[in-house]
Amino acid sequence: MTSADYLMKMFGLKGEKAVVIGGTGTLGGAMCDTLAYAGASVIVSGRKEKPGTARAHTIRQNGGIAAFHMCDCTDEASLQALVEAHGDATIVINAQGDNSATPFLEIEEEEALRLMGLNYHSVMRSCQLFGGKMIASNGGSIINIASASSEIPLSRVFTYSATKAAVLNLTKNLAREWATQDVRVNALTPGFIPAEQSRKVLTPDRIEQIMNHTPANRFGEPYELATALLYLVGPGSSFTTGTSTVVDGGYLCKTI
Fold this sequence. Notes:
By secondary structure, the protein is an alpha/beta fold. Helices cover about 45% and strands about 15% of the residues. It has nine helices and seven strands. α3 links the parallel β2 and β3. The longest helix has 28 residues, at about 110-135.
């Protein structure tokens, strides 16, 4: 067996179909690229048509298989339509999410419900709908994007942290329930990797705080998260379920 054959055996995704909800964003887009280049056919899904179609076009130009499917995952009918069109997916990535730095005592119900709906409820519904399809067929792999704030409290982003903690708990519960039905459910847990939802809270003083608490003393790059994703969805991780794979430059291990 050549090294190339071995790598394809462990990480190759030829014949797999992946739906990436939130694939129009920075992190989700990097995941789409990685999945496609590993051999999967990729459905780039999100609310923004222009970046979604551009991502799919670039993947195709580079020899991959990709298409864009517009979906507002907080809208039940829109999510149902995505599942109806691509319910044969063997890999589902829930990368949708948003953030807010509103001080706790100033958080209004509308904002709290919006973030809970996007960051948690839409992930739960995606897992229900796609997971049901996987159970009825030959299994599959679901990856939910959590956060370092799923594990420890993170100041200034109260609602976001609560929703991501819920996502991590959901992931572990589903992994336990579905393991015997060949559906693996794992969380991918990034530290500070600047994306749309985090840039708006990255003030100079906040960046200094982050660097002081991150042993690697830098932000992560989207490809570093996507590389971990490739392990979680690949054939070589067939005994891996219920995990939180952390990509954070050491953030969670820092104390004093």
